[in-house]
Design the sequence.
């Protein structure tokens, strides 16, 4: 069984547990052996929990005595910005050094209620700001398929943890693509649910109107199983919605925004691969159709206004008094704030706080933040219109495969361009799924690629339906 750890999905694990062919303890031991071997070079985990074997043992006892729980004994890795009571959580930032969570995020509580166990905290871009994991205060995460390349971000640690075979699944957060893009770079499945489908309670906030907890898994089915556990309304997050009932439809028509997905701006192999995915979908019986999303070309501009504005406000709470790091400025409270924030935040976080404060300042609020929100409404309308004609929208997940570490260091704008296909779903609030498809061979290494399906609000079921068929599940 051990040699299978990189490919085991939740259903197979549960079946093996039930038949007594595998125990949660054995599975965790196999994952720990992988971490022992790989993590020093990949840097996917910031911490491996010292109680994971104990928790696995407890789960084994429950399995033996016929206990139920959809995830009983299933080990999951958790991004460092999602709170687990009693454990450290730091959003990969120095400013949260020493902070321990005093409560469970709702998603964590729901996973626990179904018997899941947690293997460790995964590395990420500091405060989820980034698309390569190079913005972590604890060093970049390397791509398991090519150690010279990035794992993607900001949930790069979670993606690498699943891809390297050290956890059955991982949870992450997605504000502009942070689950789907690293999933694509690392060759795993990534789901960003509808805004409000999963509670954000206990997720360290970045851009609150965009943030969603998402899933990184080995199969579309696993994403479906986990989504079903963590979704639903929550009194602790008043943006959550009720579990949407199924509309009973089978999605058949797929829209392709041809203006957006064209040869220009895309890696030629990504473009070719995308066309192959269209062919495959047509062979599976789907109808494809060219659609227009006229405001999508402004999506990056909207995103890089709305996100830093909201992030700068959310990050105001880290002042050296309430959480984590405290630096004494030697000259009263204000000097403590300045000293702590200067020492605690990294370069990209400071950049976004500066931009956000500028955007929200008295003279510019209307010109930037409000304007971006008006444009966002028009983008939402584009999606509503498109979904009257088609059931799903297909794009590549990212315009390129994983790039080389350091390549975009001095060019944040080219890094932001990597988000071109993912930010639209966050701005519109619709759910989107990245499924691995194809590779690009560079220097003898096969770099994974991914394609992305977006569905109407609360129609995750359509993503799972097409995703499973497309992924041959
Ligand atoms: N890469 C995007 C950014 O840098 C997305 C981040 C995210 O989804 N958390 O903002």
Sequence:
């Amino acid at each position: 069984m051990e040699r299978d750890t990189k490919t085991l999905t939740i259903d197979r694990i549960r079946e093996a547990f039930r038949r007594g062919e595998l125990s949660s303890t054995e599975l965790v031991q196999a994952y720990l052996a992988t971490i022992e071997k790989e993590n020093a070079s990949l840097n996917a985990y910031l911490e491996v929990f010292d109680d994971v074997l104990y928790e696995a043992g407890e789960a084994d006892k429950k399995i033996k005595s016929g206990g139920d729980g959809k995830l009983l004994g299933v080990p999951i890795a958790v991004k460092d910005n999602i709170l687990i009571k009693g454990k450290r959580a730091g959003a990969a930032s120095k400013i949260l050094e020493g902070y321990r969570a005093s409560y469970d995020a709702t998603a964590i509580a729901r996973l626990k209620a179904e018997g899941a166990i947690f293997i460790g905290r995964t590395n990420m871009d500091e405060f989820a700001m980034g698309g390569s994991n190079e913005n972590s205060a604890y060093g970049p995460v390397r791509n398991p398929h090519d150690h010279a390349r990035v794992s993607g971000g900001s949930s790069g640690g979670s993606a690498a943890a699943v891809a390297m075979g050290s956890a059955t699944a991982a949870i992450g957060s997605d504000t502009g693509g942070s689950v789907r893009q690293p999933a694509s770079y690392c060759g795993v499945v990534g789901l960003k649910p509808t805004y409000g489908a999963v509670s954000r309670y206990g997720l360290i906030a970045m851009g609150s109107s965009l943030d969603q907890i998402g899933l990184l898994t080995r199969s579309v089915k696993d994403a479906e199983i986990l989504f079903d556990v963590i979704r639903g309304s929550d009194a602790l997050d008043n943006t959550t919605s009720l579990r949407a009932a199924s509309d009973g439809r089978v999605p058949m028509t797929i829209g392709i925004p041809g203006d957006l997905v064209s040869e220009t701006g895309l890696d030629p192999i990504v473009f070719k691969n995308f066309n192959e995915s269209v062919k495959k979908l047509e062979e599976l019986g789907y109808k494809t159709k060219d659609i227009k999303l006229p405001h999508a070309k402004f999506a990056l501009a909207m995103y890089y206004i709305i996100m830093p504005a909201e992030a700068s406000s959310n990050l105001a709470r880290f002042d050296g008094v309430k959480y984590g790091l405290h630096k004494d400025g030697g000259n009263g409270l204000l000097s403590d704030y300045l000293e702590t924030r200067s020492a605690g935040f990294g370069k990209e976080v400071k950049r976004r706080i500066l931009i956000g404060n500028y955007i929200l300042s008295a003279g510019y609020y209307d010109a930037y933040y409000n304007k971006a929100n008006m444009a966002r409404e028009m983008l939402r309308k584009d999606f509503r219109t498109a979904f009257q004609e088609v059931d799903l929208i297909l794009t590549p997940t990212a315009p390129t495969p994983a790039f080389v570490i350091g390549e975009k260091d001095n060019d944040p704008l080219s890094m932001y361009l990597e988000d071109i296909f993912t930010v639209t779903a966050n701005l519109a609030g619709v759910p989107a799924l990245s499924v691995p498809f194809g590779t690009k061979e560079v220097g003898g290494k096969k770099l994974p690629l991914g394609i992305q399906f977006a569905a109407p609000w609360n129609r995750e079921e359509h993503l799972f339906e097409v995703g499973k068929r497309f992924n041959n599940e």
User: Anything to note?
Assistant: The CA atoms of residues 17 and 302 lie 48 Å apart. The two ends are 21 Å apart (CA to CA).
